């Protein structure tokens, strides 16, 4: 049973707590990914606050799973959540594990360990416990003289002395079903928060003489997330794990504490990632490639030996072997930069393939295009791909030289080996090996600079003279 009905007041958010993301993934999705690794698990999820949004996220993330969802309309405490879900438990299982929904780092094997210990101890209640340097916010574990767990006391119900106890309830339990069904109706809300506490079942079991087991669980998996500061801390520890994994596998991370790497990202051997990079989604960086400082890559592929220079942004883009991109380049979805090609500063590509060895080094927009091999795209070239209604393609053959500041008014095709003069506005196809010039012919008037200067100077002086004079009016 996963308890995820609460609003998460301490997050101070419009969004339900379990939908807040930890390293790019909602908490609840992380938890369910771990739980569904357990065999023969039948899952019941208790939802309440914003239940539609949570259910939608769950079914999108796990389209083939059909967990039972129970609605807890009013959130009257963790005990009340379990009470609401009891009626919906599938027939059969004799043990019920309960997990708080705000534990995104919990592993399936830790929960299995708690369930096993529960079986071994023939307990009515088994609770995962951990030692915290700072136990603030957690329920404290009370033990008797023989070290048996007797009670869990919530933070707000603790005496000053109990507050100093550092062993806490991790938020992960296993119950014998018979005990749960018998004891849940006995819960009372006579406590500081006026809620039904699931944790009171521990004292109920101990008092009736049933076995209670406390099982140590790893705190690094069970830090509960109640506010955004805790969320950031959990995220940081997860990131640290991801980065360490990559470094141990042969990746160099420069100033690793500044890089963000989703777990879904693949980095091959001898990849170097500079400070402040963010690598997201299905991004793959192949062997020996270098991603320099401040790059953001989402669902991109960087080929072997390629170099992404600082502050470039790639989204669903491919950069092939030994190509160089950036600094300050933007590769939008559908960009494909060929082997040994170059994309320089302030160049934007969208749905454009740049062939092997081709260059677009400065200040260009290449959208909906196909550029052959060994093409030179001069500075300031624009593919005019959009007419306000539809997008059109620009096709440039192998070996073409496009002079600076040219516009390709798509749809248009430049045949292989052609030469486009600088400043051209190309509106019709150019056959192979041609020279295309589409700009006004230059006019030179020798000596006219001096005369022009004299004229302009005279005008400027006239404009400064006080009005009313013979010459004071404006001249054309
Ligand atoms: C809870 C435990 C505390 C433990 C801590 C571990 C109780 C009373 N306290 O405290 O002993 O140390 O977890 O992290 O259980 N929920 C519902 N319905 C409700 C109330 C809560 O589904 O009516 C869900 C929440 O969405 C959340 C989970 O239960 O996912 C835990 O609730 P939360 O308010 O975070 O409990 P804590 O105060 O952290
Ligand atoms: Ca919590």
Describe this structure in words.
The protein is an alpha/beta fold. Helices cover 21% and strands 27% of the residues. It is built from 9 helices and 39 strands. It has a 16-stranded parallel β-sheet that branches. The protein has a 9-stranded parallel β-sheet with strand order 14-17-20-23-26-28-30-33-36, with no helix packed on it. Strands 5-4-1-6-10-7-11 form a 7-stranded mixed β-sheet, with helices on both faces. The model has no long low-confidence stretch (mean pLDDT 96). Uridine-diphosphate-N-acetylglucosamine binds at residues 3-6, 46, 72, 75-78, 80-81, 100-102, 138-139, 152, 154, 168-171, 197-199, 224, 226.
Question: Biggest sheet: strands, sense, closure?
Answer: 16 strands, parallel
Give the end-to-end Cα distance, rounded to a whole number of Å.
Answer: 87 Å
The percentage of residues in β strands lies in 25-35%
Query: Which word captures the global form?
Result: elongated
Radius of gyration: 34 Å
The oligomeric state is single chain
Could you estimate the helical fraction of the residues in percent? 10-25%
Which structural class do you get from the secondary structure elements?
alpha/beta
Return residue spans where pLDDT drops below 50 for at least 5 consecutive residues: none
Bound molecules: uridine-diphosphate-N-acetylglucosamine, calcium ion
Q: How many distinct beta strands?
A: 39
- Quickly count the helices: 9
Q: How confident overall, as mean pLDDT?
A: 96
């Amino acid at each position: 049973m996963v308890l995820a009905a609460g609003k998460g007041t301490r997050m101070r958010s419009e969004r339900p707590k379990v939908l807040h993301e930890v390293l790019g993934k909602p908490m609840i999705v992380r938890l369910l990914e771990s739980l569904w690794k357990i065999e023969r698990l039948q899952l019941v999820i208790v939802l309440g606050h914003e239940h539609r949004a949570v259910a939608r996220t769950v079914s999108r993330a796990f389209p083939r799973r059909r967990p039972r969802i129970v609605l807890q309309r009013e959130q009257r405490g963790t005990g009340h959540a379990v009470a609401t879900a009891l009626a919906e438990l599938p027939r059969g299982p004799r043990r019920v594990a309960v997990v708080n929904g705000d534990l995104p780092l919990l592993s399936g094997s830790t929960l299995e360990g708690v369930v096993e210990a529960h079986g071994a101890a023939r307990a009515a209640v088994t609770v995962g416990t951990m030692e915290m340097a700072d136990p603030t916010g957690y329920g404290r574990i009370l033990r008797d003289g023989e070290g048996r767990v007797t009670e869990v006391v919530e933070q707000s119900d603790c005496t000053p002395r109990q507050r100093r106890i550092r062993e806490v309830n991790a938020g992960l339990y296993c119950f014998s079903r018979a005990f749960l069904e018998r004891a849940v109706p006995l819960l009372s809300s006579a406590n500081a928060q006026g809620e039904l506490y699931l944790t009171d079942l521990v004292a109920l079991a101990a008092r009736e003489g049933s076995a209670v087991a406390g099982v140590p669980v790893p705190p690094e998996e069970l830090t509960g997330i109640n506010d955004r500061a805790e969320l950031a801390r959990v995220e940081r520890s997860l990131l640290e794990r991801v980065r360490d994994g990559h470094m141990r596998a042969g990746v160099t991370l420069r100033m690793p504490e500044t890089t963000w790497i989703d777990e879904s990202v693949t980095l091959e051997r001898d990849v170097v990632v500079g400070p402040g990079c963010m690598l997201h989604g299905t991004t793959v960086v192949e062997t020996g490639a270098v991603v320099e400082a401040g790059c953001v890559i989402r669902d991109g592929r960087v080929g072997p030996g390629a170099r992404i220079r600082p502050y470039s942004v790639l989204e669903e883009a491919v950069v092939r072997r030994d190509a160089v991109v950036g600094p300050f380049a933007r590769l939008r979805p559908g960009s494909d930069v060929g082997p040994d090609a170059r994309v320089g500063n302030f160049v934007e590509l969208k749905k454009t393939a740049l062939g092997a060895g081709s260059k677009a080094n400065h200040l260009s927009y290449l959208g909906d295009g196909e550029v052959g091999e060994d093409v030179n795209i001069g500075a300031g070239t624009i593919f005019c791909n959009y007419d306000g209604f539809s997008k059109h393609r620009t096709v440039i053959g192998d070996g073409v030289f496009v002079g600076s500041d040219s516009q390709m008014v798509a749809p248009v095709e430049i045949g292989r080996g052609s030469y486009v003069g600088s400043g051209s506005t190309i509106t019709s196809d150019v056959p192979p090996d041609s020279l295309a010039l589409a700009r006004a012919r230059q006019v030179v008037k020798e000596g006219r600079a001096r005369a022009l200067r004299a004229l302009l100077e005279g005008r400027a002086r006239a404009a400064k003279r006080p009005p009313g004079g013979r010459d004071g009016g404006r001249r054309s």
